[in-house]
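User: Could you write out the 3D structure of this protein bound to protoporphyrin IX containing FE? I've included everything you need below.
Assistant: Certainly. Input first, then the structure.
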Amino acid sequence: MTFTEKDEALVKESWDIMKQNIPEYSLRFFSIILEIAPAAKNMFSFLRDSEEVPQNNPKLKAHAIKVFKMTCESAIQLREKGEVVVGETTLKYLGAIHLKNGVIDPHFEVVKQALLRTIEEASGDKWSEELKCAWSVAYDHLAAAIKAEMKE
Ligand code: HEM
């Protein structure tokens, strides 16, 4: 698939909506992750020891923002260069932190589904197949780069 200017604009537009309410959408994002994969709870330091997904937790928000923002940056790179290039230091760090925390390939699919559902809820009647596809493609490229680093 060629990543068009329209695809990039769609991704940016939904990230702009998300940014306006990070506490709510990051909470939704993690709630959906745990709905799909309850066992993932034990991997996250900020979920492990609490009964419920904690509200306004800085680490939870940081991870949600990273996933959304880096996917958005990947969309920009896909449109500009036709590929996603994560800086070497960042990629090394991402590979190491996920390996250390016990993340395996299927988890990336769980996070993808949670990401798409959160965007669907946030974008209301702006949601479309095209929008879904643009986020999916950008996320898949980013996830592939991290997964490859984890196998190094
Ligand atoms: C930590 C990014 C996917 C689980 C981190 C950190 C970053 C990051 C930057 C360092 C801590 C921080 O700044 O918040 C990403 C990105 C992803 C991704 C960009 C996908 C595109 C995943 C997936 C899982 C996962 C699929 C597993 C379901 C974790 C865990 C930590 C972590 C358990 C340690 C957090 C803690 O306990 O404090 N991730 N991540 N991540 N990530 Fe990811």
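The mean pLDDT is 96.
User: Perfect, thank you.
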